[in-house]
Protein backbone atom coordinates (compact mmCIF):
# COMPACT_ATOMS: atom_id res chain seq x y z
CA UNK A 1 0.00 0.00 0.00
CA UNK A 2 2.60 2.48 -1.06
CA UNK A 3 2.37 5.40 -3.46
CA UNK A 4 4.39 5.48 -6.65
CA UNK A 5 4.98 8.26 -9.16
CA UNK A 6 7.05 8.57 -12.31
CA UNK A 7 7.71 11.26 -14.90
CA UNK A 8 9.22 11.50 -18.37
CA UNK A 9 9.13 14.69 -20.38
CA UNK A 10 10.84 17.97 -21.08
CA UNK A 11 10.52 19.50 -17.61
CA UNK A 12 12.84 19.35 -14.65
CA UNK A 13 11.14 16.55 -12.74
CA UNK A 14 12.43 16.44 -9.18
CA UNK A 15 9.86 18.88 -7.86
CA UNK A 16 7.08 17.30 -9.97
CA UNK A 17 7.85 13.92 -8.40
CA UNK A 18 8.11 15.46 -4.95
CA UNK A 19 4.76 17.25 -5.33
CA UNK A 20 3.18 14.04 -6.60
CA UNK A 21 4.43 12.12 -3.59
CA UNK A 22 3.05 14.78 -1.26
CA UNK A 23 -0.40 14.00 -2.69
CA UNK A 24 0.14 10.27 -2.16
CA UNK A 25 1.47 10.49 1.36
CA UNK A 26 -1.83 9.13 2.69
CA UNK A 27 -0.89 5.77 1.15
CA UNK A 28 2.05 5.34 3.50
CA UNK A 29 4.64 7.46 5.21
CA UNK A 30 7.27 5.18 6.70
CA UNK A 31 9.86 6.41 4.20
CA UNK A 32 10.05 8.17 0.86
CA UNK A 33 12.49 8.46 -2.00
CA UNK A 34 13.22 9.61 -5.54
CA UNK A 35 15.50 8.44 -8.32
CA UNK A 36 16.30 10.71 -11.26
CA UNK A 37 18.52 10.45 -14.30
CA UNK A 38 21.26 13.08 -14.25
CA UNK A 39 24.16 13.10 -16.78
CA UNK A 40 23.49 9.49 -17.71
CA UNK A 41 23.59 8.33 -14.07
CA UNK A 42 20.71 7.44 -11.79
CA UNK A 43 20.83 9.46 -8.58
CA UNK A 44 18.80 8.17 -5.62
CA UNK A 45 17.65 10.24 -2.62
CA UNK A 46 15.81 8.46 0.22
CA UNK A 47 14.75 9.27 3.74
CA UNK A 48 13.05 7.51 6.65
CA UNK A 49 9.82 9.13 7.81
CA UNK A 50 7.28 11.19 5.96
CA UNK A 51 7.76 13.65 3.12
CA UNK A 52 9.21 16.29 5.43
CA UNK A 53 12.25 14.04 5.87
CA UNK A 54 12.63 13.66 2.10
CA UNK A 55 12.29 17.41 1.71
CA UNK A 56 15.24 17.87 4.07
CA UNK A 57 17.30 15.36 2.07
CA UNK A 58 16.50 17.15 -1.17
CA UNK A 59 17.57 20.57 0.13
CA UNK A 60 20.38 21.88 -2.10
CA UNK A 61 20.07 18.75 -4.21
CA UNK A 62 17.30 19.60 -6.67
CA UNK A 63 18.78 17.79 -9.71
CA UNK A 64 17.42 20.58 -11.89
CA UNK A 65 18.52 18.89 -15.09
CA UNK A 66 16.63 15.61 -14.47
CA UNK A 67 13.90 14.86 -17.06
CA UNK A 68 13.20 11.25 -16.06
CA UNK A 69 12.51 9.91 -12.61
CA UNK A 70 10.59 7.79 -10.12
CA UNK A 71 9.25 8.46 -6.64
CA UNK A 72 7.84 6.37 -3.81
CA UNK A 73 6.22 6.80 -0.44
CA UNK A 74 6.27 3.60 1.61
CA UNK A 75 4.08 1.70 4.02
CA UNK A 76 6.35 -1.05 5.28
CA UNK A 77 5.43 -4.69 4.74
CA UNK A 78 8.70 -6.57 4.15
CA UNK A 79 11.55 -4.93 6.02
CA UNK A 80 11.37 -2.28 8.73
CA UNK A 81 11.25 1.42 7.84
CA UNK A 82 14.88 2.35 7.09
CA UNK A 83 16.84 4.17 4.40
CA UNK A 84 18.05 0.88 2.89
CA UNK A 85 14.49 -0.43 2.68
CA UNK A 86 13.12 2.81 1.24
CA UNK A 87 12.35 2.82 -2.48
CA UNK A 88 13.53 3.34 -5.20
CA UNK A 89 15.61 0.18 -5.35
CA UNK A 90 18.49 -0.43 -7.73
CA UNK A 91 20.09 -3.38 -9.46
CA UNK A 92 23.75 -4.30 -8.90
CA UNK A 93 25.01 -1.90 -11.58
CA UNK A 94 22.95 1.07 -10.40
CA UNK A 95 21.70 1.51 -13.98
CA UNK A 96 18.18 0.29 -13.18
CA UNK A 97 15.82 1.85 -10.66
CA UNK A 98 12.37 0.64 -9.64
CA UNK A 99 9.47 1.62 -7.40
CA UNK A 100 6.80 -0.88 -6.40
CA UNK A 101 3.47 -0.86 -4.63
CA UNK A 102 2.21 -4.21 -3.37
CA UNK A 103 3.75 -7.50 -2.35
CA UNK A 104 5.91 -10.03 -4.20
CA UNK A 105 4.78 -13.24 -2.55
CA UNK A 106 7.54 -15.47 -3.98
CA UNK A 107 10.36 -13.02 -3.30
CA UNK A 108 12.24 -15.24 -0.84
CA UNK A 109 12.88 -18.00 -3.41
CA UNK A 110 13.68 -15.47 -6.13
CA UNK A 111 16.11 -13.63 -3.88
CA UNK A 112 17.89 -16.85 -2.97
CA UNK A 113 18.26 -17.82 -6.60
CA UNK A 114 19.38 -14.34 -7.69
CA UNK A 115 21.92 -14.25 -4.86
CA UNK A 116 23.21 -17.64 -5.99
CA UNK A 117 23.65 -16.14 -9.45
CA UNK A 118 25.79 -13.38 -7.93
CA UNK A 119 23.29 -10.52 -7.39
CA UNK A 120 24.05 -8.31 -4.40
CA UNK A 121 21.06 -7.21 -2.31
CA UNK A 122 21.08 -3.96 -0.41
CA UNK A 123 17.72 -4.15 1.42
CA UNK A 124 15.39 -6.54 3.24
CA UNK A 125 12.49 -5.79 0.91
CA UNK A 126 10.55 -8.01 -1.42
CA UNK A 127 10.57 -5.20 -3.99
CA UNK A 128 14.31 -5.25 -4.59
CA UNK A 129 14.06 -8.58 -6.44
CA UNK A 130 12.26 -6.71 -9.21
CA UNK A 131 15.32 -4.50 -9.88
CA UNK A 132 17.59 -7.55 -10.01
CA UNK A 133 15.20 -9.55 -12.18
CA UNK A 134 15.05 -6.69 -14.67
CA UNK A 135 18.86 -6.61 -14.61
CA UNK A 136 18.93 -10.34 -15.29
CA UNK A 137 16.48 -10.11 -18.19
CA UNK A 138 17.78 -6.88 -19.71
CA UNK A 139 19.51 -7.26 -23.06
CA UNK A 140 18.89 -3.83 -24.51
CA UNK A 141 15.06 -3.91 -24.30
CA UNK A 142 13.62 -2.50 -21.04
CA UNK A 143 10.02 -3.40 -21.83
CA UNK A 144 10.97 -7.01 -22.57
CA UNK A 145 12.91 -7.17 -19.30
CA UNK A 146 9.83 -5.88 -17.47
CA UNK A 147 7.66 -8.44 -19.22
CA UNK A 148 9.94 -11.34 -18.26
CA UNK A 149 10.17 -10.03 -14.70
CA UNK A 150 6.38 -9.91 -14.48
CA UNK A 151 6.29 -13.56 -15.50
CA UNK A 152 8.70 -14.48 -12.70
CA UNK A 153 6.90 -12.77 -9.83
CA UNK A 154 3.73 -13.72 -7.97
CA UNK A 155 1.56 -11.53 -5.74
CA UNK A 156 -0.22 -8.25 -6.24
CA UNK A 157 1.75 -5.23 -7.30
CA UNK A 158 2.28 -2.29 -9.62
CA UNK A 159 5.79 -1.21 -10.49
CA UNK A 160 7.69 1.25 -12.68
CA UNK A 161 11.25 0.94 -13.91
CA UNK A 162 13.80 3.21 -15.54
CA UNK A 163 17.23 2.40 -17.04
CA UNK A 164 20.06 4.86 -17.52
CA UNK A 165 20.49 3.67 -21.13
CA UNK A 166 16.89 4.77 -21.88
CA UNK A 167 16.79 8.43 -20.85
CA UNK A 168 13.27 8.92 -22.20
CA UNK A 169 11.46 5.77 -21.09
CA UNK A 170 9.45 4.42 -18.17
CA UNK A 171 8.24 0.84 -18.32
CA UNK A 172 6.10 -1.01 -15.82
CA UNK A 173 3.39 -3.49 -15.08
CA UNK A 174 0.36 -3.95 -12.95
CA UNK A 175 -1.32 -6.86 -11.21
CA UNK A 176 -4.25 -5.85 -9.02
CA UNK A 177 -2.67 -2.73 -7.46
CA UNK A 178 -3.65 0.57 -9.11
CA UNK A 179 -1.59 2.29 -11.81
CA UNK A 180 -2.71 5.39 -13.69
CA UNK A 181 -1.04 7.31 -16.50
CA UNK A 182 -1.40 11.08 -16.76
CA UNK A 183 -1.00 12.26 -20.35
CA UNK A 184 0.36 15.80 -20.56
CA UNK A 185 1.59 17.93 -23.44
CA UNK A 186 4.66 15.99 -24.55
CA UNK A 187 5.07 14.51 -21.08
CA UNK A 188 3.83 11.48 -19.19
CA UNK A 189 3.11 10.99 -15.50
CA UNK A 190 2.54 7.63 -13.84
CA UNK A 191 1.08 7.21 -10.37
CA UNK A 192 -0.85 5.02 -7.95
CA UNK A 193 -3.60 7.61 -7.78
CA UNK A 194 -4.78 10.58 -9.81
CA UNK A 195 -4.11 13.38 -7.25
CA UNK A 196 -0.39 12.82 -7.79
CA UNK A 197 -0.58 14.52 -11.18
CA UNK A 198 -3.95 16.27 -11.11
CA UNK A 199 -2.38 19.73 -10.96
CA UNK A 200 -0.45 18.94 -14.18
CA UNK A 201 -2.93 17.05 -16.32
CA UNK A 202 -6.51 15.80 -16.21
CA UNK A 203 -6.13 13.33 -19.08
CA UNK A 204 -5.84 9.84 -17.66
CA UNK A 205 -5.24 6.35 -19.04
CA UNK A 206 -5.83 3.37 -16.74
CA UNK A 207 -3.36 0.49 -16.86
CA UNK A 208 -5.54 -2.61 -16.55
CA UNK A 209 -4.98 -5.67 -14.45
CA UNK A 210 -2.21 -7.91 -15.84
CA UNK A 211 -1.02 -5.32 -18.32
CA UNK A 212 2.29 -3.69 -19.17
CA UNK A 213 2.99 -0.13 -20.20
CA UNK A 214 5.81 1.79 -21.78
CA UNK A 215 5.90 5.58 -21.75
CA UNK A 216 8.05 8.08 -23.63
CA UNK A 217 7.53 11.87 -23.56
CA UNK A 218 5.01 11.94 -26.40
CA UNK A 219 3.41 8.53 -26.12
CA UNK A 220 2.15 5.83 -23.83
CA UNK A 221 1.45 2.28 -24.90
CA UNK A 222 -0.59 -0.21 -22.90
CA UNK A 223 0.22 -3.81 -23.77
CA UNK A 224 -0.92 -7.27 -22.83
CA UNK A 225 1.50 -9.79 -21.42
CA UNK A 226 2.48 -10.85 -24.94
CA UNK A 227 3.35 -7.20 -25.71
CA UNK A 228 0.35 -6.82 -28.03
CA UNK A 229 -0.67 -3.16 -28.02
CA UNK A 230 -4.12 -2.56 -26.48
CA UNK A 231 -6.45 0.28 -27.40
CA UNK A 232 -7.12 2.45 -24.37
CA UNK A 233 -9.13 5.64 -24.29
CA UNK A 234 -8.05 8.76 -22.48
CA UNK A 235 -10.50 9.75 -19.72
CA UNK A 236 -10.84 13.38 -18.69
CA UNK A 237 -11.05 13.77 -14.92
CA UNK A 238 -13.14 16.62 -13.55
CA UNK A 239 -11.92 16.66 -9.98
CA UNK A 240 -11.22 20.02 -8.44
CA UNK A 241 -7.54 20.47 -7.54
CA UNK A 242 -8.60 22.36 -4.40
CA UNK A 243 -10.47 19.27 -3.24
CA UNK A 244 -7.09 17.79 -2.42
CA UNK A 245 -6.07 20.75 -0.31
CA UNK A 246 -7.15 21.55 3.25
CA UNK A 247 -9.22 24.54 2.22
CA UNK A 248 -8.61 26.58 5.35
CA UNK A 249 -9.16 23.79 7.89
CA UNK A 250 -6.34 22.86 10.23
CA UNK A 251 -6.42 19.21 9.17
CA UNK A 252 -7.86 17.13 6.36
CA UNK A 253 -9.92 15.13 8.83
CA UNK A 254 -11.61 18.26 10.14
CA UNK A 255 -12.26 19.49 6.63
CA UNK A 256 -13.73 16.13 5.71
CA UNK A 257 -16.00 16.01 8.77
CA UNK A 258 -17.39 19.37 7.71
CA UNK A 259 -17.79 18.23 4.10
CA UNK A 260 -20.21 15.49 5.15
CA UNK A 261 -23.41 17.36 4.27
CA UNK A 262 -22.06 17.83 0.72
CA UNK A 263 -20.98 14.21 0.52
CA UNK A 264 -24.54 13.19 1.41
CA UNK A 265 -26.13 15.57 -1.08
CA UNK A 266 -23.89 14.28 -3.86
CA UNK A 267 -24.42 10.63 -2.99
CA UNK A 268 -28.20 10.99 -3.05
CA UNK A 269 -28.33 13.38 -6.04
CA UNK A 270 -30.48 12.17 -8.92
CA UNK A 271 -31.04 8.78 -7.35
CA UNK A 272 -34.42 9.44 -5.76
CA UNK A 273 -36.23 11.28 -8.56
CA UNK A 274 -39.74 10.79 -7.14
CA UNK A 275 -42.65 8.46 -7.86
CA UNK A 276 -41.10 5.77 -5.67
CA UNK A 277 -38.22 5.34 -8.11
CA UNK A 278 -34.65 4.55 -7.04
CA UNK A 279 -32.16 5.13 -9.87
CA UNK A 280 -28.79 3.44 -9.47
CA UNK A 281 -27.32 3.59 -12.96
CA UNK A 282 -24.05 1.79 -12.36
CA UNK A 283 -25.72 -1.04 -10.48
CA UNK A 284 -26.19 -2.96 -13.74
CA UNK A 285 -28.10 -5.76 -12.01
CA UNK A 286 -31.54 -6.00 -13.64
CA UNK A 287 -34.59 -5.37 -11.45
CA UNK A 288 -35.93 -8.86 -12.08
CA UNK A 289 -32.68 -10.34 -10.75
CA UNK A 290 -32.78 -8.04 -7.73
CA UNK A 291 -36.37 -9.04 -7.06
CA UNK A 292 -35.22 -12.66 -6.76
CA UNK A 293 -32.45 -11.93 -4.26
CA UNK A 294 -33.18 -13.86 -1.07
CA UNK A 295 -30.08 -12.97 0.94
CA UNK A 296 -27.75 -10.02 1.11
CA UNK A 297 -24.25 -10.72 2.36
CA UNK A 298 -22.20 -7.68 3.30
CA UNK A 299 -18.39 -7.90 3.44
CA UNK A 300 -16.01 -5.09 4.35
CA UNK A 301 -13.23 -4.00 6.71
CA UNK A 302 -12.92 -1.35 9.42
CA UNK A 303 -15.11 1.69 9.05
CA UNK A 304 -16.67 0.26 5.90
CA UNK A 305 -17.70 -2.79 7.92
CA UNK A 306 -19.47 -0.50 10.37
CA UNK A 307 -21.37 1.08 7.48
CA UNK A 308 -22.26 -2.46 6.41
CA UNK A 309 -23.62 -3.18 9.87
CA UNK A 310 -26.02 -0.28 9.50
CA UNK A 311 -27.08 -2.05 6.30
CA UNK A 312 -28.07 -5.14 8.23
CA UNK A 313 -30.75 -3.23 10.15
CA UNK A 314 -31.90 -1.09 7.24
CA UNK A 315 -32.13 -3.89 4.67
CA UNK A 316 -34.03 -6.15 7.04
CA UNK A 317 -36.32 -3.34 8.05
CA UNK A 318 -37.15 -1.82 4.67
CA UNK A 319 -36.54 -4.59 2.11
CA UNK A 320 -37.48 -7.53 4.36
CA UNK A 321 -34.53 -9.50 3.04
CA UNK A 322 -32.23 -11.75 5.08
CA UNK A 323 -28.87 -10.11 5.75
CA UNK A 324 -25.56 -11.58 6.77
CA UNK A 325 -22.47 -9.58 7.53
CA UNK A 326 -18.84 -10.51 7.86
CA UNK A 327 -15.42 -8.98 8.12
CA UNK A 328 -13.82 -9.54 4.70
CA UNK A 329 -10.67 -11.14 6.09
CA UNK A 330 -12.84 -13.76 7.81
CA UNK A 331 -15.29 -14.29 4.97
CA UNK A 332 -12.54 -15.02 2.44
CA UNK A 333 -11.36 -18.06 4.41
CA UNK A 334 -14.78 -19.44 5.28
CA UNK A 335 -17.10 -21.63 3.29
CA UNK A 336 -20.03 -19.24 3.04
CA UNK A 337 -23.25 -20.62 1.64
CA UNK A 338 -23.99 -18.50 -1.43
CA UNK A 339 -26.15 -18.92 -4.49
CA UNK A 340 -27.11 -16.93 -7.58
CA UNK A 341 -29.91 -15.52 -5.42
CA UNK A 342 -27.36 -14.05 -2.97
CA UNK A 343 -26.29 -10.46 -3.39
CA UNK A 344 -22.81 -9.97 -1.94
CA UNK A 345 -22.09 -6.32 -1.22
CA UNK A 346 -18.42 -5.37 -0.88
CA UNK A 347 -18.01 -1.98 0.78
CA UNK A 348 -14.68 -0.21 0.41
CA UNK A 349 -14.07 3.51 0.15
CA UNK A 350 -10.78 2.90 -1.67
CA UNK A 351 -12.02 -0.04 -3.72
CA UNK A 352 -8.55 -1.50 -3.28
CA UNK A 353 -8.64 -3.20 0.14
CA UNK A 354 -7.07 -6.61 -0.46
CA UNK A 355 -9.32 -8.56 1.91
CA UNK A 356 -12.53 -7.03 0.59
CA UNK A 357 -11.46 -7.66 -3.01
CA UNK A 358 -10.63 -11.28 -2.18
CA UNK A 359 -14.02 -11.75 -0.52
CA UNK A 360 -15.79 -10.28 -3.55
CA UNK A 361 -13.84 -12.53 -5.92
CA UNK A 362 -14.70 -15.55 -3.82
CA UNK A 363 -18.37 -14.59 -4.06
CA UNK A 364 -18.10 -14.27 -7.85
CA UNK A 365 -16.54 -17.72 -8.03
CA UNK A 366 -19.51 -19.05 -6.05
CA UNK A 367 -21.94 -17.52 -8.58
CA UNK A 368 -23.36 -14.89 -6.27
CA UNK A 369 -24.19 -11.44 -7.64
CA UNK A 370 -21.58 -8.99 -6.44
CA UNK A 371 -22.11 -5.30 -5.86
CA UNK A 372 -19.35 -2.83 -4.92
CA UNK A 373 -20.01 0.28 -2.85
CA UNK A 374 -16.94 2.44 -3.33
CA UNK A 375 -15.79 6.02 -3.55
CA UNK A 376 -13.14 5.52 -6.22
CA UNK A 377 -14.04 5.30 -9.87
CA UNK A 378 -12.18 2.65 -11.79
CA UNK A 379 -10.89 1.05 -8.58
CA UNK A 380 -10.36 -2.69 -8.56
CA UNK A 381 -13.60 -3.32 -6.68
CA UNK A 382 -15.54 -1.81 -9.56
CA UNK A 383 -13.94 -4.28 -11.94
CA UNK A 384 -14.49 -7.28 -9.69
CA UNK A 385 -18.19 -6.60 -9.21
CA UNK A 386 -21.30 -7.09 -11.37
CA UNK A 387 -22.31 -3.58 -10.51
CA UNK A 388 -21.40 -0.55 -8.43
CA UNK A 389 -23.00 2.08 -6.26
CA UNK A 390 -20.55 4.95 -6.16
CA UNK A 391 -20.45 7.05 -3.07
CA UNK A 392 -19.71 10.55 -4.19
CA UNK A 393 -17.86 11.85 -1.17
CA UNK A 394 -14.94 13.30 -3.14
CA UNK A 395 -11.35 12.65 -2.33
CA UNK A 396 -10.71 11.73 1.30
CA UNK A 397 -7.16 12.37 2.46
CA UNK A 398 -7.44 11.87 6.24
CA UNK A 399 -6.52 8.29 7.05
CA UNK A 400 -9.46 8.09 9.45
CA UNK A 401 -12.52 7.76 7.25
CA UNK A 402 -15.34 10.21 7.97
CA UNK A 403 -17.17 11.60 4.96
CA UNK A 404 -16.78 8.37 2.99
CA UNK A 405 -18.38 6.53 5.93
CA UNK A 406 -21.44 8.76 5.87
CA UNK A 407 -21.67 8.41 2.10
CA UNK A 408 -21.44 4.61 2.45
CA UNK A 409 -24.36 4.61 4.88
CA UNK A 410 -26.38 6.71 2.44
CA UNK A 411 -25.49 4.33 -0.39
CA UNK A 412 -26.79 1.48 1.76
CA UNK A 413 -30.00 3.39 2.34
CA UNK A 414 -30.34 3.71 -1.44
CA UNK A 415 -29.68 0.00 -1.92
CA UNK A 416 -32.26 -0.89 0.73
CA UNK A 417 -34.83 1.36 -0.92
CA UNK A 418 -34.07 -0.16 -4.32
CA UNK A 419 -34.53 -3.70 -3.00
CA UNK A 420 -37.67 -2.66 -1.12
CA UNK A 421 -39.03 -1.18 -4.34
CA UNK A 422 -38.35 -4.17 -6.62
CA UNK A 423 -39.52 -6.63 -3.99
CA UNK A 424 -42.61 -4.60 -3.20
CA UNK A 425 -41.68 -4.48 0.49
CA UNK A 426 -42.45 -0.75 0.64
CA UNK A 427 -45.11 1.06 -1.37
CA UNK A 428 -44.57 4.27 -3.32
CA UNK A 429 -45.69 6.48 -0.45
CA UNK A 430 -43.44 4.78 2.03
CA UNK A 431 -40.44 5.09 -0.30
CA UNK A 432 -41.19 8.74 -0.96
CA UNK A 433 -41.56 9.41 2.76
CA UNK A 434 -38.14 7.93 3.47
CA UNK A 435 -36.66 9.67 0.41
CA UNK A 436 -37.75 13.10 1.57
CA UNK A 437 -36.43 12.44 5.08
CA UNK A 438 -33.11 11.30 3.65
CA UNK A 439 -32.89 14.40 1.46
CA UNK A 440 -33.45 16.55 4.55
CA UNK A 441 -30.50 15.09 6.48
CA UNK A 442 -27.72 17.18 4.83
CA UNK A 443 -29.40 20.44 5.89
CA UNK A 444 -29.84 19.12 9.44
CA UNK A 445 -26.18 18.20 9.56
CA UNK A 446 -25.07 21.53 8.14
CA UNK A 447 -26.96 23.28 10.91
CA UNK A 448 -25.60 20.89 13.51
CA UNK A 449 -21.99 21.43 12.43
CA UNK A 450 -22.32 25.18 13.03
CA UNK A 451 -22.05 24.50 16.73
CA UNK A 452 -19.72 21.72 17.74
CA UNK A 453 -18.94 23.15 21.17
CA UNK A 454 -20.47 20.22 23.09
CA UNK A 455 -18.01 17.71 21.63
CA UNK A 456 -15.13 20.09 22.24
CA UNK A 457 -16.09 20.79 25.86
CA UNK A 458 -16.58 17.10 26.62
CA UNK A 459 -13.24 16.31 24.99
CA UNK A 460 -11.55 18.83 27.31
CA UNK A 461 -13.06 17.10 30.34
CA UNK A 462 -12.13 13.55 29.41
CA UNK A 463 -9.09 13.58 27.10
CA UNK A 464 -6.70 12.36 29.79
CA UNK A 465 -8.79 9.28 30.58
CA UNK A 466 -6.96 6.01 29.84
CA UNK A 467 -9.96 4.07 28.51
CA UNK A 468 -13.39 4.67 26.96
CA UNK A 469 -16.29 2.21 26.71
CA UNK A 470 -18.87 2.73 23.92
CA UNK A 471 -22.36 1.22 24.07
CA UNK A 472 -25.24 1.11 21.61
CA UNK A 473 -28.19 -1.02 20.56
CA UNK A 474 -29.87 -1.56 17.18
CA UNK A 475 -28.58 0.94 14.63
CA UNK A 476 -26.78 2.59 17.55
CA UNK A 477 -24.44 -0.42 17.73
CA UNK A 478 -22.52 0.23 14.48
CA UNK A 479 -22.42 3.90 15.45
CA UNK A 480 -20.74 3.14 18.77
CA UNK A 481 -18.34 0.69 17.09
CA UNK A 482 -17.36 3.42 14.64
CA UNK A 483 -17.01 6.05 17.38
CA UNK A 484 -14.70 3.74 19.33
CA UNK A 485 -12.61 2.97 16.23
CA UNK A 486 -12.22 6.68 15.47
CA UNK A 487 -11.05 7.43 18.99
CA UNK A 488 -8.53 4.59 19.14
CA UNK A 489 -7.08 5.18 15.69
CA UNK A 490 -6.42 8.89 16.02
CA UNK A 491 -5.82 9.35 19.79
CA UNK A 492 -4.36 5.89 20.63
CA UNK A 493 -6.67 5.65 23.66
CA UNK A 494 -7.83 2.04 24.21
CA UNK A 495 -11.56 1.63 23.64
CA UNK A 496 -14.14 -1.13 23.75
CA UNK A 497 -17.43 -0.98 21.90
CA UNK A 498 -20.26 -3.30 22.82
CA UNK A 499 -23.88 -4.01 22.19
CA UNK A 500 -25.31 -2.36 25.32
CA UNK A 501 -27.17 -5.52 26.31
CA UNK A 502 -23.89 -7.46 26.31
CA UNK A 503 -22.20 -5.16 28.82
CA UNK A 504 -23.35 -7.17 31.81
CA UNK A 505 -21.74 -10.29 30.33
CA UNK A 506 -18.19 -9.02 30.82
CA UNK A 507 -17.22 -5.46 29.95
CA UNK A 508 -19.01 -4.09 33.02
CA UNK A 509 -16.00 -5.38 34.99
CA UNK A 510 -13.91 -2.66 33.33
CA UNK A 511 -15.92 0.14 34.87
CA UNK A 512 -14.66 2.17 37.76
CA UNK A 513 -15.52 5.50 39.33
CA UNK A 514 -15.42 8.14 36.59
CA UNK A 515 -14.72 5.76 33.66
CA UNK A 516 -16.12 7.47 30.56
CA UNK A 517 -18.88 5.48 28.87
CA UNK A 518 -20.20 6.87 25.59
CA UNK A 519 -23.77 5.69 24.99
CA UNK A 520 -25.66 6.10 21.72
CA UNK A 521 -29.15 6.78 23.05
CA UNK A 522 -31.00 8.36 20.15
CA UNK A 523 -34.77 7.97 19.82
CA UNK A 524 -35.95 4.59 18.60
CA UNK A 525 -37.69 1.40 19.60
CA UNK A 526 -34.83 0.29 21.89
CA UNK A 527 -34.39 3.66 23.63
CA UNK A 528 -35.88 2.46 26.96
CA UNK A 529 -33.58 -0.58 26.90
CA UNK A 530 -30.58 1.71 26.40
CA UNK A 531 -31.67 3.82 29.38
CA UNK A 532 -31.69 0.64 31.51
CA UNK A 533 -28.12 -0.02 30.40
CA UNK A 534 -27.19 3.55 31.30
CA UNK A 535 -28.55 2.89 34.80
CA UNK A 536 -26.26 -0.14 35.07
CA UNK A 537 -23.30 2.05 34.15
CA UNK A 538 -24.25 4.73 36.66
CA UNK A 539 -24.60 2.16 39.42
CA UNK A 540 -20.82 1.62 39.02
CA UNK A 541 -20.15 5.38 39.33
CA UNK A 542 -18.90 5.54 35.74
CA UNK A 543 -19.42 8.78 33.76
CA UNK A 544 -22.10 8.64 31.06
CA UNK A 545 -21.64 10.68 27.87
CA UNK A 546 -24.89 10.26 25.96
CA UNK A 547 -25.62 10.93 22.29
CA UNK A 548 -29.32 11.78 22.31
CA UNK A 549 -31.99 13.25 20.07
CA UNK A 550 -32.62 16.98 20.31
CA UNK A 551 -35.55 17.67 22.59
CA UNK A 552 -34.87 14.74 24.89
CA UNK A 553 -34.33 16.70 28.09
CA UNK A 554 -35.10 13.62 30.21
CA UNK A 555 -31.76 12.00 29.33
CA UNK A 556 -29.92 14.67 31.33
CA UNK A 557 -31.13 12.97 34.52
CA UNK A 558 -29.18 9.84 33.58
CA UNK A 559 -26.08 11.39 32.02
CA UNK A 560 -23.06 13.39 33.04
CA UNK A 561 -22.82 14.91 29.57
CA UNK A 562 -25.07 14.94 26.52
CA UNK A 563 -24.30 15.52 22.84
CA UNK A 564 -27.57 16.25 21.07
CA UNK A 565 -28.17 15.38 17.42
CA UNK A 566 -31.01 16.42 15.08
CA UNK A 567 -34.13 14.23 15.01
CA UNK A 568 -34.49 11.78 12.13
CA UNK A 569 -36.22 8.45 11.76
CA UNK A 570 -34.53 5.54 13.47
CA UNK A 571 -33.09 3.87 10.34
CA UNK A 572 -31.55 7.17 9.19
CA UNK A 573 -30.22 8.11 12.62
CA UNK A 574 -26.65 6.77 12.11
CA UNK A 575 -26.17 9.56 9.54
CA UNK A 576 -26.40 12.10 12.35
CA UNK A 577 -25.39 10.20 15.48
CA UNK A 578 -21.93 9.20 14.25
CA UNK A 579 -20.92 12.83 13.67
CA UNK A 580 -20.55 13.89 17.35
CA UNK A 581 -18.48 10.77 17.91
CA UNK A 582 -16.16 11.75 15.04
CA UNK A 583 -15.87 15.22 16.57
CA UNK A 584 -15.27 13.87 20.07
CA UNK A 585 -12.45 11.66 18.79
CA UNK A 586 -11.08 14.54 16.76
CA UNK A 587 -10.94 17.00 19.66
CA UNK A 588 -9.50 14.44 22.06
CA UNK A 589 -6.75 13.59 19.56
CA UNK A 590 -5.99 17.27 18.99
CA UNK A 591 -5.82 17.92 22.73
CA UNK A 592 -3.39 15.04 23.05
CA UNK A 593 -1.27 16.51 20.25
CA UNK A 594 -1.72 13.54 17.89
CA UNK A 595 -1.33 13.71 14.12
CA UNK A 596 -4.97 13.06 13.21
CA UNK A 597 -4.42 12.97 9.46
CA UNK A 598 -1.63 10.42 9.64
CA UNK A 599 -2.11 8.20 12.70
CA UNK A 600 0.81 5.93 13.46
CA UNK A 601 0.96 2.48 11.84
CA UNK A 602 -2.09 3.11 9.63
CA UNK A 603 -2.48 3.61 5.92
CA UNK A 604 -5.38 4.95 3.93
CA UNK A 605 -5.47 2.07 1.50
CA UNK A 606 -4.71 -1.41 2.76
CA UNK A 607 -3.68 -3.36 -0.33
CA UNK A 608 -2.02 -6.13 1.65
CA UNK A 609 -3.63 -9.04 3.38
C1 LIG B 1 -10.97 4.01 8.68
O1 LIG B 1 -10.90 5.07 9.58
C2 LIG B 1 -9.87 3.08 8.83
N1 LIG B 1 -8.63 3.73 8.59
C3 LIG B 1 -9.99 1.69 8.21
O2 LIG B 1 -10.66 0.91 9.14
C4 LIG B 1 -10.67 1.53 6.85
O3 LIG B 1 -12.04 1.80 6.98
C5 LIG B 1 -10.46 0.11 6.32
O4 LIG B 1 -9.10 -0.08 6.10
C6 LIG B 1 -11.24 -0.19 5.06
O5 LIG B 1 -10.83 0.61 4.00
P1 LIG B 1 -11.67 0.68 2.67
O6 LIG B 1 -12.96 1.30 2.98
O7 LIG B 1 -10.83 1.50 1.74
O8 LIG B 1 -11.84 -0.71 2.17
Ligand kinds: 2-deoxy-2-amino glucitol-6-phosphate
How many helices? The count is 18
Indicate the mean pLDDT: 93
The low-pLDDT segments are none
Structure summary, number of beta strands = 25
Structural class: alpha/beta
Q: Can you describe this structure?
A:
- By secondary structure, this protein is an alpha/beta fold.
- The protein has 3 domains: 3-245, Aminohydrolase, N-terminal nucleophile (Ntn) domain (Glutamine Phosphoribosylpyrophosphate, subunit 1, domain 1, 4-Layer Sandwich), CATH 3.60.20; 255-443, Rossmann fold, CATH 3.40.50.10490; 453-591, Rossmann fold (3-Layer(aba) Sandwich).
- It is built from 18 helices and 25 strands.
- The strands form 4 sheets. Strands 3-2-4-1-10-9-11-15 form an 8-stranded antiparallel sheet, with helices on one face. It has a 7-stranded antiparallel sheet with strand order 5-6-7-8-12-13-14.
- Strand 23 (516-521), helix 17 and strand 24 (543-549) form a beta-alpha-beta unit.
- The longest helix has 22 residues, at 428-449.
- The radius of gyration is 25 Å and the shape is globular.
- The protein binds 2-deoxy-2-amino glucitol-6-phosphate (AGP).
- 2-deoxy-2-amino glucitol-6-phosphate binds next to helix 9.
- Residues 301-304, 348-350, 353, 356, 399-401, 489, 602, 605-606 line the site of 2-deoxy-2-amino glucitol-6-phosphate.
